[in-house]
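Same chain as my last thread, 314 residues:
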Amino acid sequence: MSLKPHDDHMHTNTGESNFNESMYFNFYDRTQKLGGFVRVGNRPNEHYAEVTVAVYKPDGTALFNYKRPEIADNAAFNAGGMKFEVVEPFKHLRVSYDGHAVYLAHPLDLEDPRKAFTSNPHQPLQLQLDYYGLSPMYGGEAPMDNSEMVFARGHTEQHVRAVGSITIDGQQTPLNGFGLRDHSWGPRSWQSPKFYRWLTCEFDESFGFMGSQIVLQNGTEILSGFVFKDGENHYVNSLELHTEWADPGQYHSAIRTKLQTTNGELEIFGKVMTMLPLRNRRDGKTTRIAEGMTEWRCGDHVGYGLSEYLDQVG
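reply #2:
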């Protein structure tokens, strides 16, 4: 896969009706016990952006918003009050959000988004974060498309430090934590895989992992990922995944994974702290994307990140 510094910037719109370019950033501050993620996905040929902000509070409540603001082109990530800037490729990016979000005393209320947004209070929300690269970049652009996997032509990920502040309903809180960012471009259909599992975690500034399991509609399984350890990325060549499910809703609640790399094997245990159930509807199909803020343990190490489970449910 090819990867160059200019890949941190915007890419040429290649004309597919569902062309997408997106960036995603997550974060967790273990002192504040506060985390979340943001995403902007430009769909210039459909003339809108997908803008998402999620905040997981230490008491198990959450804030969430999703918008589809109109955009004219793929010139920048700047829509719906969300803005992403590349200060220095691979090293420093800046995230800001100025808007509102619905406050969810019971995050599973999002199973019915319309009811959740109309029956819960909304609060002003501002986020200012500078992201600094910790790990080498992972990924790049594939030399050809997989016609069965319309999800991304190019894709990169990186473990990062996140520093800044969040202001919820006028109350500002400083943030200093770790996270993972990703950037993808090319045709995107949330309905193309049969399902996927995406696991991210940072234990400290020199140790984290990403594990990915994608199963295509024809049953083909694609496993990938990397363990960032002591300044290097060690690529995952084998991934075992065991999930425990919880009612109501049959969402993932606990995870055990084994990651085999050229640097050895890691056994990692995850426990979901708070779950946000998201969904995407397109062409008469419904996709569930379960976003679990997760505490991870590997030996004596304790870390935090997101476990994202996508399933086709209708």
